[in-house]
């Protein structure tokens, strides 16, 4: 281990035999500028500062000391120390054998010393804080030489909200390293956490009881009250009717045990309130699923959060409100986007960065790459996440109607106009996001009107005169090269610059082949569940076949092909023969035809697209993500008519 440490310290080389967690901790230590050759701690609290810290952590110390003494009882005389630190890594309490305490003083491993990674590099206390999980660090796994003679085991102590409030550590001679040591520390830390939870619950019971009764009587929706750990404290009769369970089946259980929705993981762990989030409520162990709107609000006592109130409304009772926002809500987050390839990780980071600003975003990429998915994820990651997300396909709405869809119209604006007029998408999206898909298909006349909205932040309904201020973020998307469209005169340059503030280009599926098995596995599981099929066994060569295809239709085409394979397939296995012969037969017939496999696949994709759009070469070219002239050249090359 010493040799591996020297290899990194002196030559910057990380050997694969070093544990991954230690490798990452060494890299952080180096980045922090920690001197690996220090022989003792480098930062110490003043006595008054240590006293203030101990007062602040009085309750944690009061609960922890008896349990620390019990832990020390088992290792007494073996040269070990038991130590309690705060969440920053400052030692607050240390107990152990006299000889070992003296050795600890020699390296300033004493009460008041800071033992974070930033101060002392990789060590059990600091690395436990960095990772928020138990860890054992032995001998030269420590970054600084001061710790090399030691073996240390540390575990975090959390409050009921899941925040680290302290670290329990046990340190001793390096030659006495044993995995059971870490297990003892983890068990004691868990016991401390449990005691803290009991005290917190007892403290809040009196207030909660009166609060629960009053709240139950005043709500007209389904209601759940949970504590900060997610345990259900109170429900009402309307909720029981919605989910088909009685109060005794709910109270005392964690909310994540009752519902299968990931949303409840977010509700119980997040400090952020949720406002009217639409979801299909899935009751664990039941086929019952109800479309609802969920709202969560924090419950506070003396400015401290003690729980959350969840209200659940059946969707049919709030349909009028949903219609007000055109039924559009962003449901996808970045966690839902499947892909781990370098290109996808890069574009995710770009999109997350875009979400943190309020600037307009232009998503570009071939058809089927998921531009609408990224638009929803950007919205849900932004500060506008609780406001409307309105999507409109600029290529799917007739040009004459697009203006009224976007800007609305007044009563009598045109023949057939609804009495009283109607608001447009910009008004309905107030405070939120409007997603303009296929922006490249928008006419020049409409581009002028859109540019005016972007410049003035206001709209005027068709046939009206009243100016309506709008606060809307624009996310536009296209599979066209807008710079080329600008050169051709079919897209306004000034509008392009207004939209292209933050450009995000999505890679085609053929450029991220490593993601194809991941996406396929995701879709297969979803589709099998949708069609009521048992979990399917997928042969490795099935994924290999998918990776060899060019995927001109990208992720959308992959999903459609898998759906076809699952619907037509028999049994519980998927293999290459389940894939469409017209597309994947090229893998086996290319050699016979004298064509490379890649060319045969391109030819099959070409034929499929032309047939799909009944000879409309412009639409076929857009579907393939190529220009019409390129389409003609490929048709000539492969003899397609």
TrEMBL record:
Residues 208-278 form the PAS domain. It holds the Pfam family HTH_8. GO terms for biological process: regulation of DNA-templated transcription. One of its GO terms (molecular function) is ATP binding. Residues 337-567 form the Sigma-54 factor interaction domain. Keywords: ATP-binding, DNA-binding, Nucleotide-binding, Transcription, Transcription regulation. The keyword Membrane does not apply. NCBIfam families: sensory_box. This is Sigma-54-dependent Fis family transcriptional regulator. It comes from Siminovitchia acidinfaciens.
């Amino acid at each position: 281990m010493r040799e591996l440490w020297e290899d990194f310290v002196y030559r910057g080389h990380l050997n694969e035999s070093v544990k991954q967690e230690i490798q990452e901790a060494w890299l952080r230590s180096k980045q922090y500028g920690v001197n690996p050759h220090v022989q003792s701690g480098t930062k110490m609290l003043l006595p008054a500062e240590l006293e203030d810290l101990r007062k602040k952590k009085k309750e944690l110390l009061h609960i922890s000391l008896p349990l620390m003494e019990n832990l020390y009882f088992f290792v007494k005389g073996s040269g070990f120390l038991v130590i309690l630190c705060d969440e920053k890594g400052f030692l607050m309490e240390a107990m152990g054998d006299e000889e070992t305490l003296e050795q600890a003083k020699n390296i300033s491993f004493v009460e008041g010393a800071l033992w974070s990674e930033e101060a002392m590099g990789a060590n059990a206390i600091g690395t436990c804080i960095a990772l928020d999980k138990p860890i054992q660090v032995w001998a030269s796994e420590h970054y600084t030489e001061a710790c090399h003679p030691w073996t240390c085991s540390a575990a975090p102590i959390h409050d009921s909200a899941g925040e680290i409030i302290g670290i329990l550590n046990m340190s001793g001679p390096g030659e006495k390293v044993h995995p059971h040591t870490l297990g003892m520390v983890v068990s004691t830390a868990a016991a401390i956490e449990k005691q803290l939870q009991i005290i917190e619950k007892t403290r809040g019971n009196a207030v909660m009881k009166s609060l629960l009764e009053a709240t139950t009587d005043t709500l007209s929706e389904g209601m759940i009250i949970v504590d900060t750990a997610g345990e259900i404290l109170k429900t009402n009769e309307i909720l029981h009717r919605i989910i088909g369970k009685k109060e005794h089946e709910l109270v005392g259980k964690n909310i994540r045990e009752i519902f299968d929705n990931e949303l409840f993981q977010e509700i119980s762990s997040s400090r952020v309130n949720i406002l009217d989030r639409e979801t299909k409520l899935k009751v664990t162990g039941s086929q019952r699923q109800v479309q609802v709107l969920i709202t969560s609000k924090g419950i506070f006592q003396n400015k401290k959060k003690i729980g959350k109130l969840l209200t659940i409304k059946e969707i049919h009772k709030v349909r009028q409100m949903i219609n007000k926002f055109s039924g559009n809500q962003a449901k996808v987050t970045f966690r839902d986007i499947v892909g781990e390839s370098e290109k996808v990780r890069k574009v995710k980071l770009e999109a997350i960065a875009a979400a943190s600003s309020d600037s307009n975003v232009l998503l570009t990429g071939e058809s089927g790459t998921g531009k609408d998915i990224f638009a929803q994820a950007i919205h849900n990651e932004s500060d506008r996440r609780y406001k409307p997300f309105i999507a409109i396909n600029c290529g799917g709405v007739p040009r004459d109607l697009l203006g009224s869809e976007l800007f609305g119209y007044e009563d009598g604006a045109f023949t057939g106009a609804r009495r009283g007029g109607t608001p447009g998408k910009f008004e309905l999206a107030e405070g939120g996001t409007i997603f303009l898909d296929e922006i490249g298909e928008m006419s020049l006349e409409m581009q002028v009107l859109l540019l005016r909205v972007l410049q003035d932040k206001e709209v005027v309904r068709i046939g009206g005169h009243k100016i309506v201020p709008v606060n809307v973020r624009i996310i536009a998307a296209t599979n066209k090269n807008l710079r080329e469209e600008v050169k051709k005169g079919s897209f306004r340059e000034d509008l392009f610059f207004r939209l292209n503030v933050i450009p995000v280009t999505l890679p085609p599926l053929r450029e991220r082949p490593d993601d194809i098995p991941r996406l396929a596995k995701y879709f297969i599981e979803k589709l099998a569940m949708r069609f009521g099929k048992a979990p399917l066994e997928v042969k490795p060569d099935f994924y290999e076949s998918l990776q060899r295809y060019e995927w001109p239709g990208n992720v959308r085409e992959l999903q459609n092909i898998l759906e076809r394979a699952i619907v037509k397939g028999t049994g519980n296995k998927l293999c290459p023969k389940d894939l469409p012969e017209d597309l994947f037969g090229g893998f086996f017939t290319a050699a016979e035809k004298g064509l490379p496999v890649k060319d045969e696949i391109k030819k099959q994709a070409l034929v499929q697209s032309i047939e799909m759009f009944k000879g409309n070469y412009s639409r076929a070219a857009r579907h393939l993500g190529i220009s019409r002239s390129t389409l003609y050249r490929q048709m000539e090359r492969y003899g397609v008519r």
